[in-house]
Amino acid sequence: EAARQRFTERNLASLKLHNEATESLPGGNTRSVLYSAPFPVFMNSGKGYQVFSEDGHIYTDLVAELTAGLYGHSQPHILSTLQSTLTETGLNLGATTKLEMQHARLLCERFGLGRVRFTNSGTEATLHAIMGARKYTGRRKIVVFGGGYHGACFFFCEGGSAENNVDREDWIIARYNDIEDAKSKIESHATEIAAVLVEGMQGSGPCIVGDHEFLLAVQESARKIGAVFIFDEVMTSRLAPGGLQEIVGLKPDITTLGKWLGGGITFGAFGGREDMMQVYDPRVQGGLAHSGTFNNNTLGMAAGHAGLSQVYTADVAVEFNKTGDKFRKKLQEVSKGTKMTVTGLGTILGIHWLVDGRKELRTLEDRREDKGLLELFWLEMLEDGFWITQRGSLALILGTPEGELDRFVEVVKKFLEKYKT
Ligand code: PLP
């Protein structure tokens, strides 16, 4: 209560804006994940690895736009590309451009894709990957995993959409990290399944990491029944030069991408096996049309390409994720013997306060959070100048000083001592 009270007193401008926002937005909100009780903080601007609130507070940004903000708020190369694209190329041209060609080529190289198509978001990438798989196989059902999140209308976790989804009979939900369950669900519906759709780490878990053996077994089962194996790398593509699939040794039929790969501009993509992507070739009779006004928007294509070719190169990706691993290990060290649990891979992390004190998360059912501690932690981190999500997910921004990450570890340590958790 005291922490909530302090939060309210420190953020009166946000409170006022929130009240105004509720007059036109339901609950003052247009992205569910950004709502936080008692009311959300309104941000005013960002620079580098920091964000500045309407209440005049400065935060080190560990939300990083839910991993899409890999480059931070003013990476010079991204900024100058955006500026020159605006002034020299213009906004969408209503035509095919070299910009999409060059970004497509680089994505194919980096992620080992035969062909790729662009969308406006990760959600749309999922949608079209599924539609393509249905067209390719002539089947309808999709196997997904409890706790999975594949976009605004494709999530199978708390408040999930399976129940309300337009084609709810088409989902078969298996247990994550459970090879037997996955195999039996996939193989017992062998002739009906168009695709198996899985994340290598359930990012919205937050950060329930998939075992390599589990992911390889899921891929093998999908292959065995002739279903399309779709690997969702919308969040995890930043974890290695060629995405998490490179680390695990997977060869997905179709990979979905999004977030940072648009350089901070709205972005999504799906691609993979050339024969499967062939259904989208407009020269092929009886294929699938796939439109989207902003699919090849000039800003996203240019900024995405600039980032991938010149900023987040393979070497940088490797180093950055080493920094993330080091950071997670330091947090795990201070969490020993406490109620805090830290999960994640590389530069994406989840901080949990589990009622049963378990130190590892393997499935959705393992995640029973102490909601009070989760909120208290969020409130206190904000007071110490760290911007994190209320659900406890963190991602790193390229160029955040390591000293700031160390300060976060110290602040967490202080929190653990103060509340004797
Ligand atoms: N897939 C995964 C694994 C995600 O984490 C997300 C977004 O968080 C999506 C898909 C959807 O992407 P978008 O928010 O761009 O629609």
From TrEMBL:
GO-annotated molecular function: pyridoxal phosphate binding; transaminase activity
SUPFAM superfamilies with a match to the protein in the record: PLP-dependent transferases
Cofactor(s) the record lists: pyridoxal 5'-phosphate
Coiled coil: none
Keywords: Pyridoxal phosphate
InterPro entries: Aminotrans_3, PyrdxlP-dep_Trfase, PyrdxlP-dep_Trfase_major, PyrdxlP-dep_Trfase_small
PANTHER family per the UniProt record, alphabetical: GLUTAMATE-1-SEMIALDEHYDE 2,1-AMINOMUTASE, GLUTAMATE-1-SEMIALDEHYDE 2,1-AMINOMUTASE 1, CHLOROPLASTIC-RELATED
Protein name: Glutamate-1-semialdehyde 2,1-aminomutase
